Here is the input.
Amino acid sequence: MRASHSFRAALLAAGVAIPALACNVACAAGDETPASAFIVTAQQTWQGVSGSFRDAVPRVDRAGNALMLIETRRDRIDLLARHVHATEHRCGGFFAFASRAEAETFLASDRAQDVYAREPRGGYTIDNPATVQPWLAQVSEPNIRATITHLESYHTRHYASPTGSEAAGWIRDTWLALANGRSDVSASLFTNCNDCGNQPSVILTIEGTTWPSEVVVLGGHLDSINWDASGNSSARAPGADDDASGIATLTEILRVAMDSGFRPQRTVKFMAYAAEEVGLNGSQAIVSSFQADSVNVVGVLQLDMTNYRAPGQADIEIITDYTNAGLNSYIGTLFDAYLQPLGRTRSSSPCGYGCSDHASWTAAGYPSAFAFEGGGINHSFDLIHSAFDLIQNMGNTADRSVPFAQLGLAFLGEVAKGTTASSDLIFEHGFEAD
Ligand code: BES
Ligand code: ZN
Here is the structure.
């Protein structure tokens, strides 16, 4: 067996995703010693090649996704790779193992849904510093602070309270105003949710110029709750860190992007989810509707609790569970490219459960990541879900949220790609000069 096959076999045995190899169609050509491989893929992917892979049994993963377990010859893996690449315009889309037992173990794990991972065409890359770099210094702490201060001033943003609906309207109006009448930007209230009371989610959409059907999502939840008062809908619940901070960070990301005249190649959606605190209800409703409409979401970034940092902890925690491993590692490289040079630090840890809206996307197989307060859940702000979740109890500053806005801008510019007016201006000046 040639070296490339041994390498692949090692990856297979380890149960490692092989998107790069899956795209390297030359890799398995001419395999002289075909051995068995056990492939786990989505039923919809298998349907396109079912004639070529007959020894397949339907399986369901832990999240209820319909998968197929296919036994085939190892030298036929490429057939599937070519199919996924040609018809779904992506790499990966399946996991291959050397034994049935390993495939079964994988099927029983949380990672099985990774076969659904929808990447941007061309994969996750970092090659748009012309757009991202000038943004980083423009993030304004006073702007973030002002939004947190406004949002905490609602008596509560509980999903079942009048002020909770009012806050959603304010976010919609504020986001839309930042677009300053641009015809490619729209904002709507998403009300198709059974368990959200009267609270809508907010969705602002920037239409993509080149690949509008590929959608990039940045989101956080707009509701708050007071568990000291048993979740009573009329109790004071300022929710400054949880999650006015995430909404304020998203608002600042949008402001910087709009001020720069950013035009994304992919469609971008900013989301403020309703009714997260009572079971991720708003995000779940949006995800269900996107699934029903076959919306191709290629990356999700969740921001929930960005404005507190315990002494000695990193600036940003990347949450490792109920998120997409490939996207997490990409977020790490984005961080290292854009934030590490600014002296920022990162760490990673699990939440332990599906603790925020990223989990709604993950459960449906969309690639989703969650950037959280440094140190993770053991070092996060301990006044959340009380009447004391106030910016005055976080040092009266939004300094902690600044790196999150910068990471969000890096995610926006690199996953959605696209240019700003300043890059256009440089181009025009090139012609005007002398
Ligand atoms: N922002 C919190 C999640 C959180 C809290 C993460 C503390 C890490 C540390 C979120 O708004 C929340 O409270 N989520 C619920 C879970 C949900 C399924 C109702 C929770 O953690 O109880
Ligand atoms: Zn929260």
Remarks:
- The two ends are 63 Å apart (CA to CA).
- Residues 221, 242-243, 276, 304-305, 356 surround zinc ion (ligand 2) (CB under 6 Å).
